[in-house]
Amino acid sequence: MFGEDRGAPVGQDASASPSSVSSSYDWKKPVFIPALVAGIVGGGTGLVSKHRKTLGLSNVSASYAANFAIVTGCYCGAREFVAATRKTGPDDLLNSAIAGFGTGAILGRLQGGQVGAAKYSAIFAVAGTAADFAFWKLKSVLGNYNKSVNEDEKNSLKISSSNWLRLPEWFPIQVLDEEALAAKQAREEKFLTQQARIRNLRKEES
């Protein structure tokens, strides 16, 4: 498959080949980073565990960190494998449900046999799907917030750039915009019309 990608013409669009898309997709980031974060959270959980006094603080923290990282890494790896197999986007929650079901079934089987496999598959499917749904929702909200903040900053820059030449009202020389200039011209024309009427009336009286 990789030989076919390397032998493709130079001008061919890489997005047209599914194999090139899957090979260029960086799957390490959505797997290793969550596993690392989960390991840190697990280590912190071990610090407040009730078993730290009997088993030792370092042993409990290391055990929690390893378990959290292994479970999260297995789930995220399964999710990325399902997404690559189904050729769907990373935000497809069906991938999360399938990956959670499979990961829970395997880990539950190792821990508690068939009963554990059935229980953990349901738990992992629900928990993984809910976590991914919350993540994508939060990412969308933060993206919209950043977009609104950037738009507000651009508008404020436009307003400040248009008002930087505005002089105080008491200043005898004013820089008028189009509306103010049109209003001033209308007042001048009205004044000239009134002056012309007054001159005509004086001529008629004389």
Automatic annotation (TrEMBL):
GO biological process, one term: protein insertion into mitochondrial inner membrane
Cellular component terms (Gene Ontology): TIM22 mitochondrial import inner membrane insertion complex
Keyword Transmembrane helix appears in the UniProt entry: yes
UniProt-listed InterPro entries: TIM22
Membrane listed as a keyword: yes
One Gene Ontology term of the molecular function aspect: protein transmembrane transporter activity
Top-level taxon in the UniProt lineage: Eukaryota
Feature: compositional bias, Low complexity: 14-24
UniProt protein name: Uncharacterized protein
Keywords: Membrane, Transmembrane, Transmembrane helix
Major localisation: membrane
Chain segments carrying region Disordered: 1-25
Source organism (scientific name): Acacia crassicarpa (northern wattle)
Membrane topology summary: Multi-pass membrane protein
Intracellular or extracellular location(s): Membrane
